[in-house]
Structures are given as C-alpha cells and as structure tokens.
Amino acid sequence: MKEIGVITNPTSGSGRGARLGAETLAALAARGYRLRDLSGGSWGASYEVAARLRRSLDALVVVGGDGMVHLGLQVCAEHSLPLGIVAAGSGNDVAIELGLPIHDIPAAVDRIDDGLRGDVTRIDVGRLTGVGVEHPNRPRYFLAVLSAGIDAAVAAYGQNLKYPRGPLKYKVATLRELPRFKPYGVTTTVDGMVASQTCTLVAVANSRVFGGGLIISPGSSVIDGKLELVLADAMSRRDILRVFPKLYDGSVADDERIRYVSCEEVTITQGEIGARMPAAFADGELVGAAPLRISVAPRALRVLGARPQ
Prior knowledge:
11-stranded antiparallel β-sheet
C-alpha cells in the first residue's frame, strides 16, 4: 500500500481550506492509500515535517493554491518524491500551466491516482540562491514566475488583500501601488553578459502566467530547459496602465519596450541609478531581496498526472 503525505491549509478561506482538505483526504483514503496529514501550524512547520519524512513517502500531495504548490515544490524539487496537486486556491497559475483540474477534487484525485500508476511528468523549475533568500529553504525553488520590479511591489501589496481574487486582485493592487512608483535600477548578468538599466518590471519566467492567470511570458514552457528574463523599460504611470490590459491575452510580448531573453542562468542585483528594487516574489510568495542568482533546474520536479502546456 502506497503512503502519501498530504499538506492542507486549514486556516485559509474562513474554514474553506479545512473543508477542502477533509474532502481530499477522504477521496484519497477511498482509493486505498495510507495517508499522513503533514499540515503544521504554519507554512514553515509543514515544510519541516514533510522534508524530514520525504524518504518514507511515495508521494506528497498539496491542497490549495499556488502558495501551497510552492511549499510542496520546496520539498520535492531535485528529489525523487513526486508531487500531487489538488488546485483549490484563489490563484492556480501552476495548475493552469500543468493542465491539471481546478476546483475539482474528484478529477484532481483521479490524476494523482494515474500518476501513482506511472503517469508522471518531469518539469523544469527555477532555482534561486542568494544571501537574502528567505527561509526555510535554500536554495529556494519556483515553478511559475519570479518578480522583482513593480510586479513584486504589486504582489507585496496584493498579499494583504482578501478581496478581490485572481487577476482583478492584481489590478487593484497595481492601482494602489502606482502613485509611489519610480523606475528601479537593475543590473542583470545573463549567461555571463552584464547590463544595467532603469526598468519598470523585471521578472524571470519558467512558465507563461502569474498573478492569477496574467500572461507575462507567452513563449515560456516548463519543459524546454530554459528560463526567460523579462525586462520592461522605465515607463510613466500612464504607460503602465496602458500596458496592463495586454497581460490578459499575452499581447504584452508585442510591446517594443518589453524584452525577453532566453537563458539558463541570470543574476539580478541593485543598479547604481534608479530606485531600490522591492524584495522578489515567486509563485506569489516572498522569496528574498537582491542580489539573486536564478538558474533553471531541468526536469527537476516529478508531477503526478500533469499535462504541461
């Protein structure tokens, strides 16, 4: 009998997380799996328990949104333990990219069951190091997009908003953050080549979407062994508002002020000219302040039942 570790977020959604977690545990138990509930009192506590037990598990399943997937990623990346995802959060960017069911526990458990029978996909992840990287994990891994410009400032503001959710939440946070925006100074080293500039947005994409379904890097893929550095030149507040709607359909990639550089490794540091960059976010979670070194870890995560875009 296979043994599965399960992490839920019982405090999310005013009790909704507890209900979804209970439904998932019941659905998995009905398939005959032996379960271990690894949910701790905090994100860090759950990580510590799961990391300690990963060698004794056949799979780790996380229930919730991108934050819970990010937690599971820290446990499973560059290890043999596969990750199962029950996407049930307000933001499910990773599940979108991996072609997994969203807000459908029976279908998600079907995919996990398929995965435990051999339907496993290996995908790339971003690998993050630096003196400012947040605990509990170093290196820190991300699956979707790392943000370090106005996108990170917006994420920091949006983290404290309970409503609205999804892309609308990102829009509200952008409007609230814009009045204090000044172009950031950034120096990037991309596969050994150094460049400095002032910018509006700086991101490193492993997949296409962030911010609840916004398409920032249409050409990115979690199975191509590459990352994309996304740089937006310094813009006025008015221009930022004009660019924002282009994130809904991916036409942002056609804007001449935004550049995409395919790479395997990039270092982001504070530039000498321009405002100080905010601390970076990845998969919607705070991951740390510059200097940051980001590299691709090809095929470093095994995901149960995934169908990558």
